[in-house]
Specification:
Chains A, B: Belongs to the ROK (NagC/XylR) family. 2 copies of one chain form a homodimer. Chain A folds into 3 domains: 7-77, Arc Repressor Mutant, subunit A, CATH 1.10.10.10; 82-197 and 375-399, ATPase, nucleotide binding domain (Nucleotidyltransferase, domain 5, 2-Layer Sandwich), CATH 3.30.420.40; 209-369, 2-Layer Sandwich (Nucleotidyltransferase, domain 5). Helices cover 44% and strands 21% of the residues of chain A. Chain A is built from 14 helices and 16 strands. Chain A has helices spanning 7-25, 30-37, 41-53, 120-136, 175-183, 194-205, 264-268, 270-276, 286-297, 301-325, 335-354, 357-360, 374-389, 391-399; strands at 28-29, 57-60, 74-77, 82-89, 93-100, 104-112, 143-151, 154-155, 162-165, 170-173, 190-193, 214-220, 222-229, 232-233, 329-334, 364-367. In chain A, the strands form 4 sheets. The first copy, chain A, has a 5-stranded mixed sheet, sandwiched between helices. In chain A, helix 6 packs across helix 13. At the A-B interface, helix 1, strand 13, helix 10 and helix 12 of A face helix 1, strand 13, helix 10 and helix 12 of B.
Chain lengths: 400, 400
C-alpha cells in the first residue's frame, strides 16, 4: 500500500515495458507500439530514442509496407550487442548458452555429466570455461547484462543456494555464488529451479505464451513442476514452490529419493518406468526412456504395461493439480513429453475419473514447444529480468 | 505491458491505498500515513480531505499524545455510514451481516439450513429478508457500497454462477444474479468460494495478516482450500482454484461426493470422521465433529482411533500442499480447527514423513483466528473491493 509511482518510476516502467515488447515479440513498428502500449507517438519516440542511444534497440525502415505514406519505423532488439549467459545443470547434462536480447541463442555449448556426487568446483569450472569460449567469439562491442542458471533442485530464492537436489546429489550448495566467482564478470548469477524456469520459458515464448494459468511438468530422471497462476510464477515463501514431484499420489508406494514413499516422482520418474519395463540397471537417461516408449509403440507388451502404469500415476497427479490450480493448460516437458505422448490415453482417463468437470472441460494438454531448450531459455529470461525492469541503469552498469 | 498510469490513475490509486490503510489497520494519524505511504504531508492532507468530503473517513484530534506541539489528526473510517452486506451459504447455516468500513460487523443474522436440495428462491428470499431487516436498523444517511456472498462450492468468476457444490447439492445455480435481484439495491452481488474468502479474510485481518504465502484449509462437511501465493489468491483460469479437497490422497479409498475416490474430503470430511467413530447416521454437523474430538480427549478409544485415522490423511494432504506451495503458514479453519487441535500430532508426524525439509523447517501451523466468521468476513472484504479500488466513483454511484 505504498504511494503511486513518481514521474521517474513511470519513465523507467515505460522503458522496460517497451523493451519487453521488443524482447518477447520481436521487431515491431512504432505505430504498433503506440497502439499496444496506449501511449502517444511523441512518448514512444522519446522512449525508443533513449533505448537506441543506450544501444538496446535500433530503428530501421521496414522492408515493404504496401501502403502509401511515410512508413512507421521498426524497432528491433540489438541481439548481437546485448546478451546474457544462461546455464543449465541437469542430472545428465551441463549446458551453457549466450543468448541475445530478443531471445536468440547466439552460441551454445554442452557436456555430458556423469551421475554421481555434485562436484561444485569441477562443474562451475566447466560452465565458466564454456562462457569464456563463447565470450571470445562475441563482437568487441557486445555487452553482457546478466547471467542465470537452471538447476535440477530446490533453490533458496534469497541467495541462490541449492538446498536439495536428490537427482544431482546436491545439498546446501552455494552454486550461484561460486559460478559468479568463476565467471569473473562482476555480475551475480541468479539461480532457479529448472522446472520453474521451464514454466517461465513456455509462458514467455513457448506453447503457453498468453496463457495466464498453467502447470508445466518437467521430467528429467525426476519430476519437477513450475506453476504460473494469474501470470505469476508460484515461488513460495522461500523459493521452493512447485515441488509437485514430491506430492504423494500412492501412499505406501515406491521409495523416493527424497526419503518419502509414493511421490509422483517415485511412481512416474525414469527409474519407475525402467523398472516396470524390466530395463533398470543397464543404460539410463533420456534415450532409455525413449526406448521404452518406442518399444511400446512397436507392440512390446512389457513396455506397454510399464507405460500404462506410469501413465496412470501421471494422470492422477495431473488431476490433483488441475483440481488445485484450475489451469488453462498443462504442459509436459523434458522426458515427460515422450511419456505423455506414449500414455495420453491413461492420462486423459485418469483426468476424467479424478478431476472435477468444470476444471477439466476447457483444459488443454500440450507438450513443451521449446523442448530440451526450455530450461535454458528460462534461465536466459531470468538473466534478462533486471535489464527489462530498469534498462538504462543496467546497461550503464554493464558498460562501467 | 501497458503504459504507466496517468495522473488521474495515480490519484485514484493513492485514494484507494489510503482508504485501505484506514479500512484494514483502523484509525491512523496523518503523520503515520505520511510515513507509511511515502507521500508528503500536503498530498496526504489533500487525499484525506477528498475522502472526508465523500463521507468515507473523518478526522479527529487524538485523545492524548503525551508529546509537545500540535498533534497529528487521526483518520478514522466512517464505519456507521459506509457499509456492505456480506452473506455466507454453508451446508448447515445461512448467515448475513452488515459490515461497516473498517471491518466492523454492525449487525448480523443467522438461520439453520436443512441439508437437502438447493432451493434457490427460498434461500435468496431468506438472505434478502435479513438484509432488509438490517437495513431498516441502519442510520438514515448510511450508504451501502457493495454486497458479496461466500458459498460452499465452485464459483465461476465471470458471472458468479455456482458450478458445483456437492455439499449444498448445488449445480449450475445463478446465485449472485438471483440474490442481487431479490436485494433490489441496484448493486451486483459478487460471489466467491467460501474457503477462498476465508483465506482472504485470514490474510487481511486474521492470523495470516502480513503473511504473503499461506494455505487456508476450511472444513465444513467437506474440505475446501484457499491459497495465497506472493500476496495473491490463486483463483485459477475460471475461478475454481483451490479445490484441494478433491486432491486424491488415497487412491482406491472412500467414495467422494464429487464422483471420485480417496479425495482429501472423502478421507477427512465430516462423514469419514463420524463413520470411523461409529457415529454416522445420527446427529450431523459441527457439534457432532466436536463431540468426537471431545470423546477422544476423554479417553474414548474408538474416537481416538477415528481422529488418528483422519489426522493421518489430513497430514498427508497438508504435506502435499506444503511441497507444492512452500507456504509460510497453514491455517486450519471451520471444523478443521477442532480436528487439527485433536490430531496435531498425526499431522506433524505426516509432515515429517512426506514434506521436504526446506519446505517444513520454518512452516507455521495455526488455527483460524476469525473462527466461524472467517468466510463471512471474507465476503465482506470481497464486497469492499470496489470501493477500495476507486473510492470516490463507487461512493458517488451509491449516492446516485
Amino acid at each position: 500500500m505504498r504511494a503511486g509511482p513518481s514521474q521517474e518510476d513511470i519513465r523507467r516502467h515505460n522503458l522496460g515495458a517497451l523493451l519487453r515488447h521488443v524482447h518477447l515479440g520481436g521487431p515491431i513498428s512504432r505505430a504498433e507500439l503506440t497502439s499496444r502500449m496506449g501511449l502517444n507517438r511523441s512518448t514512444i519516440m522519446a522512449l525508443t530514442s533513449d533505448l537506441t542511444a543506450a544501444g538496446l534497440v535500433r530503428e530501421e525502415l521496414p522492408r515493404e509496407t504496401g501502403r502509401a505514406g511515410r512508413p512507421s519505423l521498426v524497432v528491433r532488439p540489438e541481439s548481437a550487442r546485448v546478451y546474457v549467459f544462461a546455464f543449465d545443470v541437469g542430472p545428465d547434462r551441463l549446458a551453457a548458452a549466450r543468448v541475445g536480447l530478443g531471445g536468440l541463442i547466439l552460441d551454445r555449448r554442452e557436456a555430458v555429466r556423469e551421475r554421481g556426487a555434485f562436484e561444485l568446483a569441477e562443474l562451475t569450472a566447466v560452465l565458466a570455461g564454456f562462457a569464456r569460449q563463447m565470450r571470445r567469439k562475441a563482437a568487441a562491442d557486445a555487452v553482457c547484462v546478466g547471467a542465470a542458471a537452471a538447476v535440477s533442485g530446490g533453490v533458496r530464492k534469497d541467495d541462490g543456494v541449492v538446498r536439495f537436489g536428490p537427482n544431482l546429489k546436491a545439498e546446501e550448495v552455494p552454486f550461484g555464488e561460486e559460478l559468479a566467482r568463476r565467471l569473473g564478470l562482476g555480475l551475480p548469477v541468479s539461480v532457479g529451479n529448472d522446472a520453474n524456469l521451464g514454466a517461465l520459458a513456455e509462458h514467455s515464448r513457448g506453447v503457453g505464451a498468453a496463457v495466464r494459468d498453467l502447470v508445466y511438468l518437467h521430467g528429467d530422471v525426476g519430476i519437477g513442476g513450475g506453476i504460473i497462476s494469474g501470470g505469476h510464477l508460484i515461488g513460495g515463501h522461500e523459493g521452493y514452490g512447485g515441488e509437485v514431484g514430491h506430492m504423494v499420489v500412492n501412499p505406501g508406494g515406491r521409495a523416493c529419493g527424497c526419503g518419502s514413499h509414493g511421490c509422483l516422482e517415485a511412481e512416474v520418474g525414469e527409474r519407475a518406468l525402467l523398472e516396470s519395463a524390466g530395463r533398470y540397471g543397464g543404460h539410463q537417461g533420456r534415450d532409455s526412456v525413449r526406448a521404452v516408449v518406442e518399444a511400446a509403440d512397436r507392440g512390446d507388451i512389457v513396455a506397454q504395461e510399464a507405460l500404462k502404469r506410469v501413465g496412470d500415476w501421471l494422470g492422477l497427479g495431473v488431476a490433483n493439480l488441475v483440481n488445485i490450480f484450475n489451469p488453462e493448460m498443462v504442459i509436459f516437458g523434458g522426458m515427460l513429453r515422450d511419456i505423455y505422448l506414449g500414455a495420453a490415453a491413461q492420462v486423459r482417463s485418469r483426468l476424467a475419473l479424478h478431476a472435477m468437470a468444470p476444471q477439466r472441460e476447457r483444459l488443454r494438454l500440450r507438450t513443451s514447444s521449446l523442448g530440451d531448450a526450455a530450461t535454458l531459455v528460462g534461465a536466459a529470461e531470468l538473466a534478462f529480468a533486471n535489464v527489462l525492469s530498469d534498462p538504462l541503469e543496467v546497461l550503464a552498469r554493464a558498460h562501467a
